[in-house]
Design a protein that fits this description.
190 residues, mainly beta, Metallo-beta-lactamase, Chain A, 5-stranded mixed β-sheet, 2 helices
Length: 190
């Protein structure tokens, strides 16, 4: 089974203009994946915890971009040998490979889902671990929601895809776009 690590815990400040994306790392056998390497205080905020796990940036196979806002993409170039994945393509050097994200398996334990809501182009990364399924997603910014995403162009899609994620068998944790991972429950915004 795959293992999940949070390299950077994201947040949005109410007091100033600081924003951090939650940056994840998934190891599934020989497949090494970084999710949403976006805005962080410095490159070292991502690279140091990755190095502590015994992984050099050149070893990362795949980078997943949940959507194309800079706060989730800014540091993607730290991984020079990785394929980048978004909602409609895979990018390798100067090669653009059209494909849908829905159901794409990056490894035996890692699958992408198309989950529009925050933007029309959102994807979520579903990881099967020994402790259950962990989902990296921007359908929630934090455990509290927000109930209604103030930037969403389609609130109905947001709520529909939240329900879709919450219905995943063996769901154990959600790693939201800008907050600590959480165990979903009855209080989780739908």
């Amino acid at each position: 089974m795959a293992e999940v690590h949070i390299l950077v815990e994201g947040f949005i400040s109410d007091e100033d203009d600081h924003v951090r994306s939650t940056v994840g790392f998934v190891r599934d056998g020989d497949t090494l994946i970084v999710v949403d390497p976006g805005m962080v205080p410095s490159a070292e905020a991502i690279l140091d915890p990755l190095q502590a796990l015994g992984v050099a940036p050149e070893q990362v196979n795949d980078v997943v971009l949940s959507h194309h806002h800079p706060d989730h993409t800014l540091k993607a170039a730290l991984f020079p040998n990785a394929s980048a994945h978004d909602f409609w393509a895979e990018y390798v050097d100067d090669l653009w490979i059209d494909r849908e994200a829905e159901g794409l398996q990056l490894s035996p334990g890692v699958t992408l889902m198309e989950t529009p809501g925050h933007t029309p182009q959102d994807i979520s990364t579903v990881v099967e671990t020994d402790d259950g399924v962990v989902v990296f997603t921007h359908l929630w910014w934090t455990a509290e929601g927000p109930e209604e995403d103030p930037f969403s162009v389609d609130q109905e899609a947001l709520h529909r895809n939240r329900e879709r994620i919450l219905a995943l068998p063996n769901l154990s944790r959600i790693a939201p776009g800008h907050g600590p991972s959480f165990v979903p429950g009855t209080q989780t915004p739908r």
